[in-house]
Amino acid sequence: MSEVTVEQLAADVGATVERLLxxxxxxxLEHEKPDQVVTDEEKQQLLAxxxxxxxxxxxxxxxxxxxxxxxSTLKMTGTQGRNKTVNVxxxxxxxxxxxxxxxxxxxxxxxxxxxxxxxEGTSPETVAETAADTAVESATPAQPEPVSEPSEEKPKKIIxxxxxxxxxxxxxxxxxxxxxxxxxxxxxxxxxxxxPKRPGAVRRERDxxxxxxxxxxxxxxxxxxxxxxxxxxxxxxxxxxRTKVLSKVMGQDKHGFARPTAPTVREVEVPESIQxxxxxxxxxxxxxxxxxTLMKMGVMATVNQSIDQDTAVLAVEELGHKAVQAAxxxxxxxxxxxxxxxxxxxxxxxxxxxxxxxxxxxxxTSLLDYIRKSRVATGEAGGITQHxxxxxxxxxxxxxxxxxxxxxxxxxxxxxxxAKCTDIVILVVAADDGVMPQTEEAILHAxxxxxxxxxxxxxxxxxxxxxxxxxxxxxxxxVISEDWGGDTQFLHVSAHTGQGVEELLDAxxxxxxxxxxxxxxxxxxxxxxxESRVDKGRGPVATLLVQGGALNRGDVILAGACFGRVRAxxxxxxxxxxxxxxxxxxxxxxxxxxxxxxxxxxxxxxxRKAREVADFRNTRDRSEKxxxxxxxxMDPFAMLAAGEKRVLNIVxxxxxxxxxxxxxxxxxxxxxxxxxxxxxxxxxxxxSETDASLAHASGAVIFGFNVRAxxxxxxxxxxxxxxxxxxxxxxxxLDDVKKMLEGMLDPEIREEIIGxxxxxxxxxxxxxxxxxxxMVIEGNVKRNQPIRVLRDDVVIYEGELESLRRFKxxxxxxxxxxxxxxxxxxxNDVKPGDKxxxxxxVEVARTLGD
Length: 850
Ligand code: GDP
Ligand code: MG
Description:
The chain is an alpha+beta fold. The protein is 36% helix and 26% strand. The protein contains 27 helices and 38 strands. The strands form eleven sheets. It has a six-stranded mixed β-sheet with strand order 12-13-11-14-15-16, sandwiched between helices. The chain has a six-stranded antiparallel β-barrel with strand order 18-19-24-22-21-25. Strand 14 (424-430), helix 20 (437-449) and strand 15 (453-458) form a beta-alpha-beta unit. Helix 1 packs across helix 2, helix 19 (412-420) packs parallel to helix 20 (437-449) and helix 24 runs parallel beside helix 27 (730-742). It starts with a strand and ends in a 9-residue tail after the last strand. The site of guanosine-5'-diphosphate has 20 residues, from helix 17.
């Protein structure tokens, strides 16, 4: 490396000798004359000084520029020795050039340099890629560009023109500068300055490049020369070094960031319904993970909640595992169930379960009454049996379990279910009335269920009794009496006189002996739901018929879509019992909801299993119901479009499930092609505000069967003028629905509640029995009007007042806000919190029909 004089250096740089000397002085060099020799070391020192004082700037031959202007002040010593401060605009540029271009430049700098600049259009990706590949990316040192006139060009020149010292800059730049102010670099620079800033993407790519460089610098530090340079000594050397290092690092990169091991993909069997915790366990992940995943999918579930198969499969896949859908029903299959058929072989003889069927008013209830020696019929609203009851009757011949299914057509659904858990059907036919539609239905049901019939021709005591006619009519339906060569026992009975009842019981026992009815006495119980309702104090109450095994208190049972532990169990007489064997009807507490009449009941070993199956069934039922409701809501529109069809929307609430189901099916049966009754929503319990608002939204009439509207609902009904009707006789609802559909009856309230009193306390009076100390909370309570006793908005008794007193005086009427003592005739079960409502039947303007 040759040494130059100050003069030569100044010429090379294109600056005046004085200016150069000044700068050298500032840099701490002692040169004073133009002919003094500047060594390589001194050049470095000068360069370092300039760099320090001006900060970094970029200066390079080709392409792309990230230009950043920075204004600073520079203290300068003028030619006359005066100090002055000038503003310096520092422009930072970074350039990345293609390796190809660079290599061309290096060996043949003179020709290559002008081509080095990469066109503006070159995509940043190409540049970045190239850089990543093998080539150079170099952020060049700062290039000061003083705006002050005197130093305009000099500093620019100094840096590149410090040959043959290790070039601080890219060769392109170096050479370009060597070739003079009109070099490619200059042109590029001009272009750069005229160019608007590059878009962000470019900048980012470049920043990335810069980052690599930064990362690489320590690795290439061996190629550094002296302090003050943050660039390698020679670009060519630097390039090579860096290329190697870069590719090495890139290679390492690949390995370094690869996952340590392949993720374990588990294959998980997903049943139709699975608890979140259980799923997590199968996946060997924390349940929180599963919950989080579900949340991302928009499903909120807790550890103990069950999710359906579809959701579970999605969650499993989301977690990167493989889901295998378990075969349908496998949930239920996992239950250890002793099927009655299998059990029967090993079982012991059991009492027959008998269902009484027949047309309405043919005397079913009366007959059962007589048999039970109790008077159920008198307490019944409208004289119709409304709920399924179940009773065991001890006769001299043995025990018989009776299911008292109501005879009205509305109970078709329940009756069909009743037949399923029945061994024998007693078909009651009134001797004076003969075979009627429901008689025929009963025959069909019994036949469908494969249950033998025993015909009881009732009301034989009546003068107009004509048993031969009944015999005849029945034979036409292929129910042929033994005396006529058939296989059906016929008996003449009277529920009033008791005539023939003993023979009827004998016939039942005989029939059951023929059936050889057996059931296991021990082992887990299996049975069927007869009835269920919610009791506000006690929760869900279900009447079950144990069909096999022993149901014990404390057993975990699954009943349809409900489950629970049997908390309390009583027999038909209300006696608490610990265990119930085959053919025993019991009332139990402890279920988590109301199962449907006819639902299977199973004792399950494991509460978790019970919950899983119940949850699964629930989900299934819910989606079915939603589909149904969506259909119901859509229908009215369809019908309006059709124009002709008359649609009656109904919100139906009932006191117990049995009545509800019966009403639903009966109402659905009423619908014809011209007119349709659509149950918008239905349920067990009082009429809630939700029910009322739904009725309002869908223009529905609200039917309360033995239930009342809650306070909130009443307000809404009043405000919106909704049509609310209370009923206690199923006939009446069906009649009204028919009439509404026929357009004969415009919606009107038929019953007017005059007043309501709330029971605060109950006293025992020697003269009147139980007296309810009441507060009149609505309207006026009148003595000579029919009343109902309500508990939790459900009618529990209908009748009349025995007494109405205020301060020991009999009164005819007690007004709102006053206290009174009320005695209900023939009813002693009034409790504090009950309501006594006094009502009056209002004449409805029926212009057509009746
Ligand atoms: P259900 O609708 O089939 O339950 O019939 P009920 O038991 O409610 O009886 C209907 C009506 O028939 C009631 O008025 C009974 O008093 C009457 N009844 C029932 N059985 C007899 C009977 O054997 N003889 C007479 N004369 N009347 C009866
Ligand atoms: Mg009845």
